[in-house]
Amino acid sequence: MQLRSPTQHLVLPLSRTVDAELASDIEKHSVYVSEDLLSLSVVQNEPRVLVGYKDGADIERLQEKLSRYLDAMLARVRRVEPAVHYQRGRRSKAIEHDVFPKLLERGWAFQHGRGMVSLSGPALTLSRVIDETFARRYRRSYAAQDRAYPAMIQAELLARCGYFEMHPNAVSFVSHLRNDFDEIESFRAVNEGASRLNVTHGGAFAPIQHCLNPAACFPCYEAFENHRIGAEGQVLTWPARVFRYESSNLVGLDRLWEFNVRELVFLGTDAFVQAGRRKAIALIQEILDDWDLSGRIETATDPFFATVYASKAFWQEAMDVKYEIRLDIAPKSNGTARTVAAGSINLHGAFFGERFNIRDANGEAAYSGCVGWGLERWVLAIFSQHGFDVQKWPERLQERVLAERDDS
Ligand SMILES: [Zn+2]
User: Which residues lie in coiled coils (predicted)?
Assistant: First the structure.
């Protein structure tokens, strides 16, 4: 008997060669193309992709779907070079590899499921220090007010924010059983004594009206609907739980389905929001200096779904509305440098002001902007750059971690 490998391969041509950034986006977004697709990689400097697929897959259908996907992604013509707005190196060149497995080994992280991780010990303390450091600075330098919002969000609100048309692939939907005695009882009966979930049929669930929030700031615009912002502007900050489904890209601490964010939102005039962004950049530079972290702030784009990727990403880049802070982590096994996007600084123009009828002091649609830091990615970058021995960390970071530990 001949054993067949469960993975088959095929090579597909691209209409042109692509730069490294587009190649990485093509690879990243390919996880949503087909359940038969196991891997897709762009051959370096060649107009070809290498595709791995499940044994028994309908190759013709897969190939046809892939070619539509690749056409959509290749429609993107990069005309704007990604601008680096700030760059910082650090004293040591040492870098810790395999941080996530090492955290698991030490019992400082626990994997609950795909994309679901909890922290404990020094890793948890560190995530609190990161969160509180930003929160305190926001209160001090922006007079930011504290808020807290639910992790669930009404589907209707996501629709109004345009999320379903831009990132449908990333949404986590919430439902419940229909209010029907017989449906609930038959669901109960098939799950009696079961050690996994049994679903009788899809119709047992109520129509979806809720989701898990995929972008920290959305609930805040709803709370300001039909409000007028004073001349001094409005700044809010809160810790948020954010959910983004990323299929097989969900691995380690850098790609979580559920993650924690320290969010900051400014609402007011265009000038007020622009000033808020400048201040946020200065503040992140201070923190990178204090904690001796290497990284950079650069122009970025959101991970739009393939069919709208080309137009939206180009627009976003050209308008210079999204910056990302990228922190260095261990390079790939082939030596290629790696960074993790530890957060973003975003300008929304008057988009939310118009959709939610939020007015500035002059009666115009208010402008908004937000800054979100992904705490788990900061944790990953700090352990990567400074190792696991807190005693050897930069003094100002070490002080904060030791103080936080004594408090808890
Ligand atoms: Zn936001």
Answer: none
Distance 81 CA to ligand 1 centre (A): 24
pTM, two decimals, is 0.91
Q: What is the pLDDT of residues 197-225, one digit of tens each?
A: 999 888 899 999 999 999 999 999 999 99
Give the list of residues 6+ apart from residue 79 with CB closer than 8 angstroms, or none: 314, 318
Q: Across-strand partners of 328?
A: 339
Strand 7-13 relative to strand 48-54, pairing? antiparallel
Q: In what order do the strands lie in the sheet with 48-54?
A: 7-13, 48-54, 37-42
| CATH fit for domain 84-169+214-407, picks 3.90.870.10, 3.30.930.10, 3.30.450.180, 3.40.50.720 | 3.30.930.10
If DSSP codes are grouped into helix, strand and coil, which group holds residue 336? coil
In the reported structure, the alpha carbon of residue 220 is separated from the centroid of ligand 1 by a whole-number distance in angstroms of 9
Question: Separation of 204 CA from ligand 1 center, angstroms?
Answer: 34
